[in-house]
């Protein structure tokens, strides 16, 4: 078997330990004589899985009891529409902080459904900083404030939680489970699975229960958080395989000591990679030091004509998916939970070696 070090931004690496359980489980899951993909989502085994996944998510993230935990389909992108549809009427105002491409997309989607106002916008710096919170032009009466705690493309992460007394709605797709968070500070948290949770096809949504009743009348059933909350996310046939993998990932993170322990490893991984980049004149990262991402680390080569060679040689060395997003250029190393410290060390060694031969 030969596994590469996969630095993909998403769908991203999964823990090898989880993949091995899946391989073993496939033909006969829990003595059912079937794979998990072939059993009824209403049957005893799957209903138990769903309950366990929720309990483990609650325990890992410390989700208070007055929050619902939902597992819809549609990814984070569908939640960009579901947030305004579940929290506003067409004349209501919702505030959006735009610190990257995903936040911009969320604001654009919300504008179709309510008065979505961009109250801070970091596009003037090509998304390399977070505008000072005191400069945000917040509405007097907003239904919520939406922001993106980690912007996956530019690698910009909030290391604080915004204040104010309206519900916070956070797209945590690329930072969820990377360290402990204080869920009680949020109204809604949503995250597509394919970065830190599991395979694409399932979404984690955490909603404070009192917000469930703000949904628009006649909202589409499958776009209504309350419908998921009332049916244990069995609103229609759920993405059973993705849910099963998410359950295994939650269990795996618990076995590793929970999010404190996971966060400590992630902090170390990110800080040694940034240290290597900052120590070199050959590589650089354009993001302000106070908002650098722990999960997505973009870096550019001083000589962009070496990009193709870097990608070719890194890939040949078993370090894959390092090409940066076209809006940023250069490279991006996504170092989610399943990317080991050993993988980051291998990348740092490769970078030093490449610099030595080409610098
Ligand atoms: C990947 C990502 C998305 C898109 O997720 P989908 O599940 O593909 O809809 C949205 N927001 C952020 C922050 C992401 O990282």
Structure write-up:
- This protein is α/β, with parallel strands linked by helices and 359 residues long.
- Helix content is 34%, strand content 15%.
- The strands form four sheets. A seven-stranded mixed β-sheet has the order 2-10-9-8-5-3-4, with helices on both faces. Strands 11-12-14 form a three-stranded antiparallel β-sheet, with helices on one face. A two-stranded parallel sheet has the order 1-13.
- Strand 6 and strand 7 form a beta hairpin.
- The longest helix is centred in the C-terminal third of the chain and has 21 residues.
- It is globular, with a radius of gyration of 21 Å.
- It starts with a strand and ends with a helix.
- Bound molecules: pyridoxal-5'-phosphate.
Task: Note the topology.
Layout: E1 5-6, H1 16-25, H2 44-61, E2 67-70, H3 75-87, E3 93-98, H4 101-110, E4 115-121, E5 145-147, E6 150-151, E7 156-157, E8 168-171, E9 188-192, E10 203-208, H5 225-230, H6 240-255, H7 258-278, E11 283-284, E12 296-301, H8 307-316, E13 319-320, E14 331-334, H9 341-358
Helix pairs in contact: 1-6, 2-6, 3-4, 7-9
The protein binds pyridoxal-5'-phosphate.
Please give a quick description of this structure.
The chain has 359 residues and is α/β, with parallel strands linked by helices.
List keywords for this structure.
359 residues, alpha/beta, 7-stranded mixed beta sheet, 3-stranded antiparallel beta sheet, 9 helices, 15% strand, binds pyridoxal-5'-phosphate
Spans of at least 5 consecutive residues with low confidence? none
Number of extended strands: 14
Mean pLDDT: 98
| Quaternary structure classification | single chain
Largest sheet: 7 strands, mixed
Bound molecules: pyridoxal-5'-phosphate
Strand content: 15-25%
- Please tally the helical runs, counting DSSP H or I stretches of 4 or more residues: 9
* Structural class by helix and strand composition: alpha/beta
Q: How do the SSEs run, as a string of H and E?
A: EHHEHEHEEEEEEEHHHEEHEEH
CA radius of gyration: 21 Å
Helical fraction? 25-40%
Outline, from the CA principal axes? globular
Strand order of the largest sheet: 2-10-9-8-5-3-4
Distance between the termini: 34 Å
């Amino acid at each position: 078997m030969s596994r590469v070090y996969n630095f993909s931004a998403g769908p991203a690496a999964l823990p090898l330990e989880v993949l091995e359980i899946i391989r073993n489980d496939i033909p006969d899951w829990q003595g059912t004589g079937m794979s998990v993909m072939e059993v009824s989502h209403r049957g005893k085994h799957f209903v138990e899985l769903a309950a366990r996944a929720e309990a483990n998510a609650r325990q890992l993230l410390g989700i208070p009891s007055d929050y619902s935990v939902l597992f819809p389909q549609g990814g984070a992108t569908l939640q960009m529409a579901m947030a305004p549809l579940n929290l506003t009427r067409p004349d209501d105002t919702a505030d959006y902080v735009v610190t990257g491409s995903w936040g911009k997309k969320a604001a654009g989607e919300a504008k179709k459904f309510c008065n979505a106002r961009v109250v801070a916008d970091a596009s003037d710096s090509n998304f390399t900083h977070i505008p000072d919170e005191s400069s945000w032009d917040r509405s007097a009466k907003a239904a919520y404030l939406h922001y993106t705690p980690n912007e996956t493309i530019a690698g910009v992460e909030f290391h604080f939680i915004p204040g104010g007394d309206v519900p916070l709605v956070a797209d945590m797709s690329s930072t969820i489970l990377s360290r402990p968070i204080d869920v009680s500070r949020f109204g809604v948290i949503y995250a597509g699975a394919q970065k830190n949770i599991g395979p694409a096809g399932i979404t984690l949504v955490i909603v404070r229960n009192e917000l469930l009743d703000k949904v628009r009348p006649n909202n589409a059933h499958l776009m209504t958080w309350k419908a998921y909350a009332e049916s244990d996310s069995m609103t229609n046939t759920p993405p059973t395989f993705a849910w099963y993998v998410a359950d295994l990932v939650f269990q795996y993170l618990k076995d590793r000591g929970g999010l404190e322990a996971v966060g400590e490893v992630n902090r170390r991984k990110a800080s040694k990679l940034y240290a290597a980049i900052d120590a070199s004149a050959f590589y650089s990262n354009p993001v302000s030091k106070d908002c650098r991402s722990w999960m997505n680390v973009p870096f550019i080569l001083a000589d962009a004509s070496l990009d193709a060679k870097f990608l070719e040689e890194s890939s040949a060395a078993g370090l894959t998916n390092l090409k940066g997003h076209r809006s940023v250029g250069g490279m991006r190393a996504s170092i989610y939970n399943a990317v080991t410290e050993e993988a980051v060390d291998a990348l740092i060694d490769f970078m030093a070696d490449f610099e030595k031969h080409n610098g």
